[in-house]
Amino acid sequence: MCGYVPAETGEQPVIVLNGPLDCATAMTVSQKYFASIGQAQGQALFLAVDGWECQWPYVAGRSHADSYSTCTAPGGGAAVKIGE
């Protein structure tokens, strides 16, 4: 875990899912996503952040409200999970 970002539902953990990704970048992208969430599109809150594709996807076995957000690096080589 890299740290926490503030969200409407309380602070959320930021976790590197895969790829060559340092915590500083993971935290920056996650912070920018939540800071700009009002500009996100659709129910899945799609938003591009510095070339990363962020969203609030449906997670198998969970309700949408209980799902976490993700941000995927350009080219898909790294990803971040935001939330439990």
Brief account:
This protein has 84 residues and is α+β, with helices and mostly antiparallel strands. Helix content is 15%, strand content 30%. A hairpin with a 2-residue loop joins strand 3 and strand 4.
Detail the topology: elements first, then pairings.
Elements: E1 3-5, E2 12-18, H1 23-35, E3 47-49, E4 52-55, E5 69-72, E6 79-82
Antiparallel strand pairs: 1-2, 2-6, 3-4, 4-5, 5-6
Structural class: alpha+beta
Into which percent range does the helicity of residues fall? Answer: 10-25%
Poorly predicted runs of 5 or more residues: none
Spell out the helices and strands N to C: EEHEEEE
Note the total helix count: 1
- Silhouette: globular
Mean pLDDT: 88
Kindly report how far apart the N and C termini lie: 11 Å
Count of extended strands: 6
Percent of residues in β-strands: 25-35%
Please outline the major beta sheet: 6 strands, antiparallel
> How many structural domains?
1
Strand order, main sheet: write it out: 1-2-6-5-4-3
Radius of gyration: 12 Å
Description:
The chain has about 80 residues and is an alpha+beta fold. It has one domain. Helix content is about 15%, strand content about 30%. The chain has 1 helix and 6 strands, in the order ββαββββ. A 6-stranded antiparallel sheet has the order 1-2-6-5-4-3, covered by helices on one side. A hairpin with a 6-residue loop joins strand 5 (about 70) and strand 6. The chain is globular, with a radius of gyration of 12 Å. The model has no long low-confidence stretch (mean pLDDT about 90).
